[in-house]
Amino acid sequence: MLTMQNIIVNGNDINNINAIIKQIKNLRRAMPDAFIEVVFTRNAVKSLLKDYPELNRIKELLDMNIKINACRNSLKEQNIDEDLIATDIGIGIVDAGVQEIVEKQLMGYAYLQL
């Protein structure tokens, strides 16, 4: 029997967003008590925009008690203003996705790259 698990997930390609969301939902169903944080990096941060056509799918993850963050460095790289991120629904912004992932791993989180 597993004890409480902490998992840090990285999604980095908007072209794979459907698979990323599906796998995160599968992870939640398989591990209902786990703390799951997802950091979207590279062009996947576009899926967190207020006007993203399928933002409701990201909201579903938030409703499943999954923490969602956008990487500030990726926002800059993609020329996306932070004000365009749907922070009003609970999406956070971290300075550097790589730093967030490494710090969580050092704290004992399992790492999953999607």
TrEMBL record:
Question: Domain of life, per the record?
Answer: Archaea
Which InterPro entries has this protein been placed in? DsrEFH-like, Sulphur_relay_DsrE/F-like
Specify one Pfam family.
DsrE
- The protein's name: Uncharacterized protein
